[in-house]
Amino acid sequence: MSSLRSITLATLRKDIRLEWRSRDALNSMLFFSLLVVVIFSFSFDPNAEESREIAGGLIWVAFLFAAVVALNQTWARELRNQVLDAYRVSPAPANSLFLAKALGNFILVSLLEAVMAPLFMIFYNLRALGPAWQLIPVGSLGTWALVVNGTFFAAMSLRTRNREIMLPLLLFPISIPAVQSMVEATRIILAGDGSARFWIVLLLTYDVVFTTACLALFETILQAE
Amino acid sequence: MKRAFPILAVLTALLLAYAFYEAIWVAPTERTMGDVQRIFYYHVPSAWTAFCLFFTNLIASIVYLVWKSSKADALAVAAAEVGVIFCTVVLVTGPIWARPVWGIWWTWDVRLTSTLVLWLIYMSYLVLRRFSDSSQTPKLAAVLAIFGALDVPLVYFSIWFFRTQHPQPVIGGGGSLDPRMLRVFLINLAVFSLFGAMVCWWRYRLEWLQREVEEVESLESLSGVAQ
Lengths: 225, 227
Prior knowledge:
The complex is a heterodimer of chains A (225) and B (227). Chain A is mostly helical and 225 residues long. Chain A is built from 9 helices and no strands. Chain B is mostly helical and 227 residues long. The radius of gyration of chain B is 21 Å and the shape is globular. Chains A and B meet through α8 and α9 of A and α4 and α5 of B.
């Protein structure tokens, strides 16, 4: 157990350090989601009263697209110099590698959300009419839902042609219930329209189910070559 | 086994013709919907067949992951492909019926939406199989099938909750079915299940033969190099 944790932390630290030095993924994600937000502002009038109703959908779609940009780069770094092959033959548990990658993506996407959410609020003149603190559990559970499956499917699509397009094709259908939960919970909180409890519980269930599935099956995927 | 194919195929064709006759001429016309209701004899059996095939795909995928049997993988491909076809039939016949009866082609009702999401998941399964050409494709596909199966109850719950909070068009259902209609429905259900199983078996044989041919070809090319 302790080796799982120390290897996870070591891999995570390495990834964060690499990302911090290049900032490739973060910069491209930030710019990409900024573009999405601006294009949405032209497509849907942000001043209208309805914008509160659709803002939850817009913001999560922007994050979903941006997350795919980051997720696609997750394993690319390990393919160079056959790092992934080294992982396969090393005695380190496969799950620590997976957890490190998923946590790294989680931190990256959360950072993006922390920067973009206030901007989105300003552009759309939003303020939460419901309990705003609930946006934090919705945001973290929703982000985890996207990155845990995203990291897994990114590892799966390494073995396919058209790797970059394969990831959204696999990730989006499976993510439909998670995306619906995030969007509905955010909409309810922003519009102050009842309780978001059901959606938060559903998101939590989704996270637990798919985290378990990913941890149970990642070794199979990593060894598949 | 090989002999049984043509016999079973002819039998299935005859039974399909009989079920068609029953559905179009024998079953009574529904009082309010009229003849368009007869699509029910195709729509529901297709849905049933599609769900059975997707379930077969899941079981075959699990069997493959546990025992690495390539026969299970061939069955998984066959069941997924044929299942997607039947599911497409469901998604096409549904709106044809809904337009005159509900006045709309599509509604985001729980059954419609979950069927659509299921179709999307299995389409992504087939896309993965198409785009991945390594020898590890079966493993990846089997894992994806398990993920899809885990997703289905969550999809159902989320849409069920979402839609019960919103006004929805009246969904046909409840009420009792005329015994003559029930008889025709059951005939169609049985014949469609048989038809689905037939096509799936055929596709499975084809997949298996194709793999054997590929194996022989690669062995021949190897021996050619050796000479």
